[in-house]
From TrEMBL:
Major subcellular site: cytoplasm
HAMAP family in the cross-refs: FdhD
Functional note: Required for formate dehydrogenase (FDH) activity. Acts as a sulfur carrier protein that transfers sulfur from IscS to the molybdenum cofactor prior to its insertion into FDH.
InterPro entries hit by this protein: Cytidine_deaminase-like (IPR016193), FdhD (IPR003786)
Catalytic residues, chain numbering: C119
Entry protein name: Sulfur carrier protein FdhD
Chain residues that bind Mo-bis(molybdopterin guanine dinucleotide): F260, L261, R262, G263, L264, R265
Signal as UniProt keyword: no
Subcellular location: Cytoplasm
Keywords, comma-separated and alphabetical: Cytoplasm, Molybdenum cofactor biosynthesis
Family: Belongs to the FdhD family.
Amino acid sequence: MSATKSKTKSQIWTIEGNKIRSRSDDITTEEPLEIRLVSPAQTLAVTMRTPGADFDLVAGFLYSEGVITSREDIAKMSYCVDPDVDGEQRQNIINVALKRGLTFDFKRLERHFFTSSACGVCGKASIESLKMREIPPISSDFNVKPEIIYNLSEQLQLAQGLFSATGGLHAAALFDESGKLLKLREDVGRHNALDKLIGSSVLTDDLPLAHHIVMVSGRSSFEILQKCIVAGVPILCAVSAPSSLAVEMAQAFNITLIGFLRGLRFNVYSGIERIESVF
């Protein structure tokens, strides 16, 4: 766990009507995280993230991008110990040593040299990128009743501790087939929150997530779908709408994509056969 805090205090002024008051408020921390490869020495990516669960984030990123296929592919992860780097900034650099003999296409990761926390590499990838990696469609026969889906949104909101404190974070949550919340990760970026969630499962050898549901705050984009497909997630739910490319991805890889999950209502954009008692 990074020593850097996930939230910071800031003085703010609240103006309401003809009144103004000053107070201290919690603000979501956003800082860069550099992912460095030890051998050969090079930077794999830099992303703006909320400090916390940094090793999960790195493992999830490496897994989603096809650099690793399991926890055993990571020999070691550690924060920077370079004495030439400012002490506080060392917590924003993670060195990764891969398993001896492991190779990958570094050129495929060049698009990630700088990744924003908000939108990743929007529009720069396509369905073909996954097909070229020979990622198979989701074959899980997992299905759920609508009543289980209805309960996910409230559970996600209640579990978002940092969001409650700051109002400025996205979340990704993992549920089992009964709709029980198993884990949740938060970050200023949607993609980072999902990488943290998937990475935590990489590090505990719990992949693929063939009998689980993932729910994300915000919308479903191409990269959100990509990460879920690589992790073997059969059902993805989101609070808001999916993008057109996200729908195409869901259809092409047989994932059940749910959007606008709010209260006792949701839309199914792909894979409705996994929702029981619909027909």
